[in-house]
Amino acid sequence: MKIDLGFGSTTQTVEIPEALFLGSFTANPLPQVPYDTAAAISKALEAPIGAKPLRDIVLPGEKVVLLTSDATRPFPAAVVLPPLLGYLKRAGIPDSDISIVFAIGIHRHQSETEHRALVGDAIYERVFCVDSDPEETLLLGTTAQGTPVAITRRVATADRRIALGNIEYHYFAGYSGGVKALMPGVSTRSAIARNHSLMLLPGAEAGRLDDNPVRKDLEEALSFCPLDFILNVVLDEQKTIAAVFAGDAIAAHRQGCLFLDRLYRVTIPRKAPIVIASQGGSPKDLNLYQTQKALDNAKYAVSDGGIIILVGSCREGLGEAVFESWMLQAERPDDLLQRIEQDFQLGGHKAAAIAQVLQKAEIYLVSELAPDSVQRLFMKPFATVQQALDHALKEKGDAEVLVLPHAGSILPSVAGVSTP
Q: Element (H or E) spanning 364, and its range?
């Protein structure tokens, strides 16, 4: 059985013995009907979930901020923005009263070239575009869990805030999308760290919402800095829009999450000794910090003591300074788990998440990272998926192999067992 897997802007092919192939698990099928993206966006704007139509919310003369994703996310801003901007223009909001703010969180700042690529040249020339600024924020309040709601000034002082984004599983906030464009998207490192420290509490898992302490804390931030409207999408595995959800920041997001579950919660017959998990290629595998998302979903599919073959180009390296220092300073994975409990640091939380998986399984990393660097990360380095699989089969013998070609999006669960 030959399987193609995304790897940066290219693909890698792996051949798996038929007798050992447990299956390649992708999204559940969608109805085979034509999908008109522009019409779907217009319909969502006209009939929002839990909110008035956007034209009844925004008023001429108001300053409007559109929060959108940075280059590490596959949100198709260049597709979504034209109909949204056209709608706002018809509602009496000119381009000059609109700002597009890229919610970079703790990610690096972006170049003009990247901004243009995200929104398209025509929109970049018409509408002011800028990265969020964690150094220029307003403190608007503090949540019950002690998270400071510190928001980039341009966003905090806007008359109206509209959050864009795509909904995916998030390994401790439950799902991406919704309020995450605001918090942590345009907040400060210290605020994000406080919120993310709640990942150590029960319920902070992929696919959980109402009893998730991280999500609850994020949504409490809306009481200090409300979102007037959201426009979220769910993407299929080809990164095209499968559904659009607009309206109230919580109600519309919840409907999007339900759709995501129908599409990406997949049932596997049993856990496998060997799991091949790809992040799906660029832009999701730019660095290890992003590629880790595939690893965290793959842990639900691998049997105890098994091997996860993690596939991600990581051509930009590890991707975050604290994450890199924690990974390189640790002498063993347990050091990371002990450290996160004693001194929670943003970036270190991803290192600890990798350490949690290493308690359960070995990790083989297929990447562009130098082999000696990968070994320092407690993983075995390989240049190709085929080399990694051949080595895994030597280690495990005639072991079953399960493949997750888009592991960052898929949440696997064993038949009859709820996950999470």
A: strand 361-366
